[in-house]
Amino acid sequence: MATLPVTLDRDAPGALGVQLSGAIRELVVAGTLARGDRLPSSRALAADLGVSRSVTEHAYEQLLAEGWLEARRGSGTFVAAGGAAPAAATRRPAPTAEHDLVRLDAGTPWIDPRHAAGWRRAWREVSSARPPRGYDDPRGLPELRSALVDRIGRTRGLVVDPDEVVVTNGTTDGLRHLLAVLPPGPVALEDPGYRAAVETVKGVARPVRDLPALDPVVDLGGVAAAYVTPAHQHPLGRVLPAAERVALLDAARSARTVVVEDDYDSEFRYDVAPVPALASLDRSRVAYLGTAAKSVAPSLRLGWMVPPPAHLDAINARRLVTHEGAPWPVQRAFLALLRDGYVDKVVRTARRVYAERAPRVAAALTPYAELAGPLAGMYSTWLLPQPDALRARAAAREAGFELNLLSDYCRSARLTGLVLGFGGVTDDELDRALAAVTSALA
Ligand SMILES: Cc1ncc(COP(=O)(O)O)c(C=O)c1O
Question: Rounded to two decimals, what is the model's pTM?
Fold first, then answer.
């Protein structure tokens, strides 16, 4: 083989040699490299990838030691007997192109097509309404803020005034607006945690501090903000217990810092009612972030924020100048969807679907993997040794599905397994994906 279809990420944590051995191992597991295939020499591969030869030698040595590769004296390095069979007829098909795979993403919700009439009604209403003449109120449409306040009071126990709400283009947009007015300094983020939030923090040139996701937070000294998902830790699924909520807020008070509460999917508890929002315990320390991504659609790009009162004016003053409010048609449509009862209806239906699918996923995977948190929301996370997780992902790809690896959500944490979303697929797709995964793990 002249070269290998591998791209290295120089910014990713960890040694390049380890990344390279992981990538080659995946190619063997997926059957892209079959038994007996010859690998490029370590020198040629190093030149191809633009890395030092010690990186490629390290990767080859590791895979030789694991038995994926074998060295033949005088002729080179080959895929060992554990790889897929080589004959064209028996060789597994090349994995489907990435964009053709059905993604089992953690963040994609189930939207029941039976509610499509309500969706159309809302957009008809938008089409006959008049847009504002100039730039709109930077906080968002007043009627929408009132409707949101009713909803988060009713569903999240968070009682606020419409003037304390800021309509955003989604969760990370809210985070960006908040960070723009906070004092300089690092932001603490759960590890493993929400990758978009990590990138947002890096994108505004603030250092990231890792908060081990399963450890109680006791010290927030020196951080400008701490970003958490207390209702359903993303991606481990844990609900932050009451004592740890109190300790987190105490730590924020002593450090005079802000806790950012990402309340992305709390509507989707199917056993018990969701724990009230952390912000309901202390408005002065918590910035609350809500989103329409899970209830209606991620592509709406609509969310809302209730910042701590001390930062509200600065956020609004900045948005007045930058015109970074949410688009008027989207706000107007979401208002119609809320008023019409559409949002409540799609949430109720999706909750029923998840309540049926989550145990189905659990029944399939429990013999092979350990569930990381309670069953809730539209995904579940399964702890597995990395080789098993890679094998399951490769099998899913062959069957036409893309799964997320838990290791991709980790920075310092060393957790491995699968994060399996079951919202954005049909029942049949879910069954086929589970069959591929379980046959790989069996
Ligand atoms: C942890 C978490 N927070 C928030 C969101 C939603 O983000 P946004 O509102 O920017 O679409 C997601 C979506 O996947 C998520 O996983």
Answer: 0.79
